[in-house]
Design goal:
Blueprint (H helix, E strand, L loop, with lengths): L2 H24 L7 H17 L23 E3 L9 E2 L2 H15 L4 E7 L2 E8 L2 E7 L5 E3 L2 H4 L14 E9 L2 H14 L7 H9 L4 H6 L3 E10 L7 H11 L8 E3 L2 H14 L7 E8 L2 H7 L9 E5 L4 E13 L5 E12 L2 E7 L3 H6 L3 E2 L2 E7 L3 E9 L5 E2 L13 E5 L2 E4 L5 H12 L11 H9 L14 H5 L12 H7 L5 H14 L4 H7 L7 H11 L2 H6 L2 H5 L6 H10 L3 H12 L20 E5 L7 H10 L3 E3 L8 E4 L5 H9 L2 E3 L1 H9 L2
Parallel strand pairs: 2-11, 21-22, 21-23, 23-24
Antiparallel strand pairs: 1-6, 3-9, 3-10, 4-5, 4-7, 7-8, 10-11, 12-13, 12-16, 13-14, 15-18, 16-17, 19-20
Length: 678
């Protein structure tokens, strides 16, 4: 290869890697697998080794991919948060080992699983969390202190005087990820692609209440800084962190011989599908801290650590059919029906095909042999066609909805929708959404009960919830079953609700009548209209009839409301069936007015609050709810526009920042006195 050819190829790799860095680190929306990304990076690294003059200071091989986003306060890391160099073969691990012993002599390593999550730093002062930050580009990250405190497994208080900074990996468990995906699917939301994507997106929420709902976890694997540097090696540091109450890697030990190193790497690979979190490799770390100092680091990687990356397991199987599922919002989603195959520890017989464009771009036909893998070791996906046959048939999206037979419309290359709002396939998901916690919050009215209500002809619209009586519910079967369960097990779950459960559901339905308008509006499941838009629209128009009568330009006057939302609102209320539902809900006593700013309590609407520390009598999310109900605004970051810092015990760095900016600092009693004045 000539230098000119190499330079052209290097630029191509750099452009691709920089694009995928942004998608992965900043947008939390990766488009390729980690394995494919690592392969790109390896190609660029090999090219730079062959042509050193191509190795520029800003090459992706020399820096961590992320950067701090401006929606969070930047944090400069006192100790650089480095990345890890990856190996993909035994030969590469042997080369790493030989470089290490050549520099420092005899060496032992701690080997740990490489958790696939978001790397963070957490700083403690005198036993209390005072700051947490993301890795960012390794030198500057984002302040996520409030969000990190929502992680239950991370100790909020430790028995340590002075400064201690630790590094860990935030992740979402496989169980919680599957539950989150199911919730997104039922709500018609865009699905997280993998657990790492979900953890990163959840941790970087501006609203810490959303983060708290995601049940994130953390594993702490390193001491970054410590006032008393009395620990001499990595294994002792992990033992010490465990003693302080930190969740550390579930297994770690010392290994010296190459045979033992490779055996442990393979052992971790064998059990990784049994862990409740995702890993994508094993990490070797030189145990002795003095040896680490001698080895040092490159501009991006420590020379004393190496990651061995496991390739994603892939299997070939046959595509038997493509089925169409109709979501809550009417979107038609193709699903692959596959010849069952064992992959990553489970039997897979179905895989998402996303949309028609996905199928066409990969030239996927029914009857083809396809390569299957699990994205993030969780979600089955088709990578490519490995063999096509003359008898393979091309797939086309249906012209009619497979559920109701009505016409479908193609809104874009990636979106085909059923026009019928009364489509049976949409009904169950629509009713589940209407009753969900963020909408009408009808507790105890879950998926299985709603499915049974529909199947028994007791619910065909949200209005029917308010017709229900205890007698019609108490004999309803609460059957929850999976296709893999035996008939005996299915029978054991086939129980009736009973009097008490039925009474609880009816009481919750009655209670939901008193909800504010924004919950009802969100519960309708109008396309493009989420919780925030529902609140803003309700706050503006006050009554459902005003929303129905509103012109598009009136809606567009609301800050934060755009063309798509305004159009969706108008289209929804053009449909007679929707208007009939609203009139029937009114007759059953369902509130259709906004309870917020119409109340005399809306006296905090000119104030912006930041909450910090532990309050004596309220959880922070409860206090935030009180403030927002009274018209106030709650934000995470202190600025000159903040009206009050409401501080509890152990307030952290926000207290100092508030003092520096001259922001008024109040405690819980002072806040309660403030609202009593109104």
């Amino acid at each position: 290869m000539t230098y000119e050819e190499a330079a052209k190829l290097a630029k191509k790799y750099m452009d691709e890697i920089n694009y995928h860095n942004k998608k992965y680190y900043e947008d939390d929306a990766p488009e390729i697998s980690d394995f494919e990304y690592d392969g790109l990076l390896k190609k660029l690294e090999n090219l730079e080794n062959e042509f050193p003059e191509l190795s520029m200071f800003d090459s992706p091989t020399k820096r961590v991919g992320g950067r701090a986003l401006n929606k969070f306060e930047p944090v400069s890391h006192k100790v650089k948060m480095e990345s890890l160099h990856n190996s993909f073969s035994k030969d590469e691990i042997l080369s790493f080992h030989e470089r290490v012993i050549k520099t420092v002599g005899d060496v032992s390593y701690v080997i740990e699983p490489k958790i696939d999550g978001l790397s963070v730093s957490v700083e403690y002062m005198n036993g209390m969390i005072f700051r947490a930050s993301t890795r960012g580009d390794g030198e500057t990250g984002e302040d996520i202190t409030e969000n990190i405190k929502t992680i239950k497994s991370l100790p909020k208080n430790i028995n340590y005087k002075g400064l201690l900074e630790v590094r860990g990996e935030v992740y979402i468990s496989t169980k919680n990820f599957n539950e989150l995906i199911e919730k997104q699917r039922l709500s018609g939301e865009k699905l997280f692609k993998n657990p790492r994507n979900a953890a990163a997106g959840s941790l970087r929420q501006k609203n810490s209440q959303i983060t708290a709902k995601r049940n994130l976890q953390i594993i702490v694997f390193n001491i970054q800084r410590k006032d008393n540097e009395d620990i001499k090696n990595h294994k002792d540091s992990l033992d010490y962190l465990k003693k302080l109450g930190f969740p550390v890697p579930p297994f770690y030990n010392l290994y010296s011989s190459t045979d033992d190193i490779f055996r442990e790497i393979e052992n971790i690979n064998m059990i990784r599908n049994n862990l409740d979190f995702q890993i994508d490799g094993a990490v070797l770390k030189v145990n002795d801290f003095k040896q680490r100092e001698i080895l040092g680091s490159t501009s991006k990687y420590p020379r004393w650590a190496e990651a061995f990356k496991y390739p994603p397991e892939e299997k070939t199987t046959k595509l038997l059919d493509i089925e169409i599922n109709v979501g809550r919002t009417g979107i038609l989603t193709p699903t692959a029906v596959l010849e069952p195959v064992l992959i990553s520890g489970t039997t897979v017989s179905r895989a998402t095909l996303h949309n028609e464009e996905f199928i066409k771009s990969r030239n996927i036909k029914i009857g083809d042999k396809v390569l299957l893998r699990k994205a993030g070791e969780i979600i089955p996906e088709i990578v490519k066609v490995t063999q096509s046959f003359p008898e393979s048939t091309e797939f086309n999206m249906p012209k009619k909805c497979p559920s109701c037979g009505c016409n479908v419309i193609k809104e874009s290359n990636v979106c085909t929708r059923c026009e019928n709002i009364n489509c049976p396939a949409q009904l169950v998901r629509h009713l589940i959404h209407f009753a969900s916690r963020d909408a009408m919050n009808i507790k105890s009215l879950g998926k299985s009960i709603i499915e049974n209500l529909v199947n028994n002809g007791l619910a065909a619209s949200p209005v029917d919830f308010y017709k229900l009586e205890v007698d019609s519910l108490k004999n309803l079967k609460k059957l929850e079953q999976k296709s893999s369960e035996s008939d005996e097990k299915k029978k054991s779950k086939n129980k009736i609700l009973g009097q008490k459960s039925a009474e609880n559901i009816i009481n919750e339905i009655k209670k939901s009548k008193n909800n504010s308008l924004e919950r009802l509006l969100f519960g309708f499941g109008i396309l493009n209209i989420g919780q925030k838009a529902s609140f803003l629209i309700s706050e503006k128009f006050k009554e459902i009839d005003n929303i129905i009568a509103a012109k598009k330009d009136e809606t567009l006057q609301i800050e934060g409301i755009g063309e798509k939302i305004a159009d969706s609102l108008i289209e929804y209320f053009k449909i007679d069936q929707n208007l009939q539902v609203i009139e029937k809900l009114k007759k059953f006593g369902v509130n259709t007015g906004f309870l917020g700013s119409s109340s005399s309590e809306q006296k905090l609407q000119t104030y912006t609050f930041v909450l910090t520390g532990t309050l004596p009598n309220y959880k922070r999310d409860e206090m935030a709810g009180i403030i927002e109900k009274m018209g106030g605004k709650v934000t995470n970051a202190i600025s000159k526009n903040t009206s009050f810092l409401l501080a509890g015990d152990n307030p952290g760095s926000k207290l100092m920042k508030a003092k520096n900016l001259g922001v008024k600092i109040i405690n819980e009693d002072e806040f309660l006195n403030l609202i009593q004045k109104h």
